[in-house]
Amino acid sequence: MKISHTTLKIRTNKELEILDLTEKVQSFVNQSGIKDGLVNIHSLHTTAVVFTQENEPLLWQDIKNYLNKIAPQETEYNHDDFKRRTVNMCDDECRNGHSHCKAMSLPSSVTLNLIGGKVQLGQWKRILFIELDRARERKVQVQVLGE
User: Fold this and answer.
1) Domain residue extents for the chain
2) pTM for this one?
């Protein structure tokens, strides 16, 4: 069995930005030379996730509306109380309890079948990344396992 991996660096521009990673993932699979096996795509962040869904702008707006309903930014979150919170703090810490709660509804990784050198996706299915927090550089790891 052969294993190949890479880290994709992504620069996001805003909260709830959705990016289609399908072509980047397929390009790396092609470079790996692996024809049959599995490909795992994994976000290295707690407020940015990967998932599979259609690349359709109206659906993307529906997804954003859904996420804002389940974890509105205006709600008070214990995570945002910097007077009480004492762990996992950064110099540029921001109020992002809502981003963490949104992430609970989406996977941090997806694993897809690789057959004949092609990532197996349905007719409309794409590999998507969504920024649940503020603009910044993000990392997504891609690992291909197989023959």
Assistant:
1) 2-73+108-146
2) 0.95
